[in-house]
């Protein structure tokens, strides 16, 4: 049991992909609880269901069975607009492929979640600038993603994830496309966010170096949790 | 999310991807512009023909010397003209005929002061202007005494008057036709083009008796080139034609087996044929225009569909960071609408501008019709909005994870 108030509780969660008559069960009867302020690394071989699990945590996908409580609320009962609000205000995503809007500037990318939070133009720009400053990219506010390095793009994506002060950041292999030096920089940012601001971080990685930034390790094999505890890598 | 923000976002997305926006608009512009222009040209041709028909006079017959055969008219070389002024008066007194006039045309050189102009001079009876529905704008028409006395008087068409007199008022002036002096007694109102594209105002009228005896040497005294007759009603045209045929056969003493030595043409029927062919041309232009519209539509469709992958991922991302379904739908709908409205307006302007250019650079009349503007606009806008909105709708109903992963 985590020491802090419980933020995420997963009960007997399964995920099955149906493709015509065939069906593949990707997640089997997962049970997991994550407290506020934790820093959890998820590891496991390719195809073990890590991304599938993260997408469910992020309310981007729905489980086949089982229950998912976020802040004590059963997510499966929420309407699509409520899920959108949840993704907007409570969750922040960092993807392996950055997923920035190609034709928008760094500033516009960071400001995008604020737009959907009904924040006025002036406040949006101000807040997005402050976020760019935190990640040291205020000078590149007008740069398009293709004018930024991979590390810079991922920092912009992190700033975007932070736009609405989320409780949780979900990062699926955020350093997967980056060299080890840049990966360390990105991980330093995550660490700081976790330690200084108490943001809960759940992060998928294949690398032990990266996992060591976390305080708890969950290991998946074939859609089941085989380890949940200390970072023993 | 507020409508203003969504509109701004739509506009922003359009300006971010100028190529896609430009290509889609190009489809709209070509489709709409081509339709408006082509239909304007077709409509113009129809209007020209209809105006000429209206200017011709109603229920008109032309009676020509010479036999008509199934293959058309046959004028034997040197064959004598058979129609006379007397035939014209006899036709005029038929019950189904309102009035009739002999016509004796010829080309002649007109001169006034230092100006020369060669034009068609027609010798006509007093009812000619009435039959042609051609008003005398200034001065007076011919009267019976002009005809009886073979007076040297002339009515001028607008073009002739301006060529010879410039801005001067010609009425009361004396000009020379083939070197003999004629008094200008009246100026005819402008009439415009005839069906065969001739300028009807480039002509002058004189009494038929003057034409026969004083102006044109006539190897067959008393004859005229043709007779113009006006039926009383549109319904009685067939009867009138029959009565005229009987009358002329009688007057020309033709035996039961002899061929007619004249032919009667119903100008109204010919005008209808001309109107029919103008309509056919207009329809053909319309068909070409529809093809442009279709091609433009397919262009719009392609561009919209090609960008679907990229846009589906964008929609997935927007949903992942908090966009609600209706935020997405509204953004894409607005985007497609703004695109179509701007493209349609530009297309309309180009079509109208093109039509204006065509009429300025050629003699062609063009008429831009409201329905062609609306039709092309609505068609292109429907395609644009449907193919702009439909993929977005599909993407917005996907789970965010599916949209994000879309290939
Ligand atoms: N949409 C889908 N339809 C069917 N099967 C799927 C789908 N998405 C994922 N899978 C399957 O689910 C399993 C788990 O995939 P997942 O992406 O969660 O793995 P992962 O642990 O993230 O792997 P990696 O480390 O390579 O990213 C895989 O076997 C994959 O083939
Ligand atoms: Mg994965």
Topology:
The complex is a heterodimer of chains A (233) and B (407).
Chain A lengths: L5 E14 L2 E14 L3 E5 L6 H8 L7 E6 L2 E2 L5 H10 L1 E4 L11 H10 L5 H14 L15 H13 L5 E5 L7 H18 L2 E5 L3 H4 L4 E6 L2 E6 L4
Parallel strand pairs in A: 3-8, 3-9, 6-7, 7-8
Antiparallel strand pairs in A: 1-2, 1-4, 4-5, 9-10
Helix pairs in contact in A: 3-4, 3-5, 4-5, 5-6
Chain B lengths: L2 H14 L1 H39 L3 E6 L1 E3 L2 E3 L10 H8 L4 E16 L2 E10 L3 H4 L4 E4 L4 H5 L4 E4 L1 H8 L8 E4 L2 E9 L14 E5 H8 L10 E6 L5 H15 L10 E5 H40 L1 H13 L4 H37 L8 H28 L2 H6 L2
Parallel strand pairs in B: 5-10, 7-9
Antiparallel strand pairs in B: 1-11, 1-12, 2-3, 4-5, 4-8, 4-11, 6-9, 7-10, 8-9
Helix pairs in contact in B: 1-11, 2-9, 2-11, 2-12, 9-12, 10-12, 11-12
Adenosine-5'-triphosphate binds next to strand 1, strand 2 and helix 1 of chain A.
List low-confidence stretches of chain A: none
Topology order of chain A in helix (H) and strand (E) letters: EEEHEEHEHHHEHEHEE
Structural class of chain A: alpha/beta
Q: In angstroms, what separates the terminal alpha carbons of chain A?
A: 22 Å
The gyration radius over C-alpha positions of chain B equals 33 Å
Q: CATH superfamily membership of chain A, which one?
A: P-loop containing nucleotide triphosphate hydrolases
Oligomer: heterodimer
Q: Which CATH class of chain A applies here? A: Alpha Beta
Q: How helix-rich are the residues of chain A, as a percent range?
A: 25-40%
What proportion strand of chain B? Answer: 15-25%
Assign an overall shape of chain B. Answer: elongated
Low-confidence parts of chain B, pLDDT < 50 over ≥5 residues? 70-78
The structural domain count of chain B equals: 2
- Helix vs. strand class of chain B: alpha+beta
